[in-house]
Amino acid sequence: MTVQRRRIIKSSESGANDKKIKRGNSQRQEASSWRHNVSILMMLGAGGLVSWIYFTWTDDLTHTLVSSGEILTQPRVFIVDCSEDYKKYKLFTGCTPTKCGRAISDNVVTLEEARKLRRLAEQGLSLAGSDGGASILDLHSGALSMGEQFVNVYRYFKEQIRYVFTEEDFLLYSDVRGRIQKAIAETFGLDFSKMYLTKPTFFSRINSSSAKTTHDEYWHPHIDKETYGSFDYTSLLYLSDYGVDFGGGRFVFMDSSSNRTVEPRAGRVSFFSSGSENLHLVEKVNWGTRYAITVSFTCDPEFAIDNPSLP
Q1: Distance between CA atoms of 253 and 266, rounded to whole angstroms?
Q2: Which alpha helices (DSSP H) does the chain contain, by range?
Q3: Does 37 or 296 have the greater pLDDT score?
């Protein structure tokens, strides 16, 4: 769950990213001011409120790519120009991004499978959890948030793990991971066999509790390729519903012209190329609890990890 601070790189591309971040911060301040003004105008009556919105509201704050109320019968794909980021790394033909973008699908994982995976996350995170608002469970490395640090869930809880997780849980997790990989490969025209699962791949649980450490500060704008290095494609499988299970917590792509958001829905998969063409953040959760799985892929076999298994 750790979001590292991005390196400062003196280039036109990083300058553009800085402008995106500043624009996003400015827009969020405008949104806060707008909500404050609306609360005042509510006291003036509906007519005054509607007139004020009509003359002052602009649609350049955010655009919703897909709402939580929609059920996509076909993937929704948005192609964007690839950044220069990938040229800094070794080229892997058939995998290194040459077609970049972001996509959302409601057809990769069923609602029942999402519910089972959420129960897996709830059971694992019930063993501990962060003192702040963001907790993670990594079935691959065993990392589990506990207070203001991490423990290895397999070593710390030992035999108790067999009462928390089952072989069926891990089989479902691995099967879903494979389907997400296939969806990414088909969307971006990749060779499935040249993509590898990489770390960190983990469950996250986010609520509105105040941050205690930098691990809780999930809301900073960042670029996955810069933050982690190994990432070439990032995906999120949502396990809870925006507006029902939690408020805030939308996924935000920060483009030069505007922010573009994805509203989580249980079973929805969002995936994208991991370079600076997809600078992004997660909004702060302001009520409820948001569950998701981050599943990441690399083109470099040196950074590959295996599916998790019970010890």
Answers
A1: 20
A2: 12-41, 46-56, 111-125, 153-157, 167-188, 224-228
A3: 296
Percent of the chain residues past pLDDT 90, beyond the cut:
78
Residue 264, token pair as written in the block: 């989580």
Give the residue-averaged pLDDT of 119-127: 97
User: How does DSSP classify residue 26?
Assistant: H
Which of 79, 84, 161, 166 is closest to 127 using CA atoms? 161
- Residue 291's contacts (CB-CB under 8 Å, 6 or more residues apart) are 118, 121, 122, 203, 204, 205, 238, 239, 240, 245
Positions marked catalytic: 290
Overall size of the chain counted in residues: 311
CB distance 283 to 264 below 8 Å = no
Spatial contact of 131 and 118, defined as CB atoms under 8 Å apart = no
Chain segment 9-26, per-residue pLDDT in tens: 334 555 555 555 555 545
- Report the pLDDT averaged over residues 278-300: 98
Q: Contact, 254 vs 21, CB < 8 A? A: yes
Taking residue 80's Cβ as centre, other Cβ atoms within 10 Å add up to: 16
Q: Look up residue 106 and give its DSSP letter.
A: S
